[in-house]
Specification:
Helices cover 61% and strands 0% of the residues. It has helices at residues 18-21, 29-39, 45-57, 61-79, 82-91, 98-110, 113-121, 126-133, 139-145, 149-152, 170-176, 178-185. The protein has twelve helices and no strands.
């Protein structure tokens, strides 16, 4: 339940200010994904952004901070994996900058829990997700997510992206992500 105190450690604790470290997250991963999923719409990204913005208005500052921690945990999971990094590269016409990777992460997370979990299990499934969730870029999702005064007080966490994966050779991409590789050639 939101508002309960927890004793588990935060995955991004090293990014937090001392005052933030003293408090443990009150939003569970399930609650985070419920909020994201509850804002999902079919094909109308503007409506999804509006619904996300409205949902965020109902969160306390503590809950909002916890939501951002969960969001950055999900984003970190994408950027640390070679397979998802290459999925982002191929899905974006063999182009990958920090911005493109950010927008891919926003898209995948904004596509909801089921889509995110599907991509974690099978990054080649991003091709299928693109058919149902549109182009793999959703900058506006972040606009709604970070449009609160508290976002600025998190010590620049929103600006940090750490890429731990590497772009594979074309041969590796063809073998490991055949659907996305074919898509990128079209």
């Amino acid at each position: 339940m939101l508002g309960e105190s927890r004793t588990a450690s935060c995955k991004h604790e090293h990014l937090l200010k001392p005052a933030q470290k003293a408090r443990m997250p009150s939003m569970t991963e399930a609650e985070f994904w419920h909020l994201v999923d509850s804002t999902r719409t079919t094909g109308d990204r503007d409506l999804q952004v509006a619904k996300l913005g409205e949902a965020l208005l109902h969160l306390s500052a503590v809950e909002y901070s916890d939501l951002l921690r969960r969001f950055f945990g999900a984003k970190h999971e994408i950027t640390r994996r070679d397979d998802l990094l290459n999925a982002a590269y191929l899905a974006n016409e063999q182009c990958l900058s920090l911005d493109v990777l950010d927008y891919f992460c926003y898209w995948l997370i904004g596509s909801g829990s089921a889509a995110y979990q599907q991509a974690l299990k099978n990054p080649d499934a991003v091709v299928e997700l693109m058919h149902s969730h549109g182009h793999p870029s959703f900058e506006e999702f972040a606009g709604a997510l970070f449009d609160r005064p508290e976002a600025a007080s998190l010590g620049g966490v929103a600006e940090r992206i750490v890429i731990k994966g590497r772009i594979w050779s074309a041969d590796e991409q063809r073998r490991k992500l055949p659907l996305l590789y074919q898509y990128s050639l079209v």
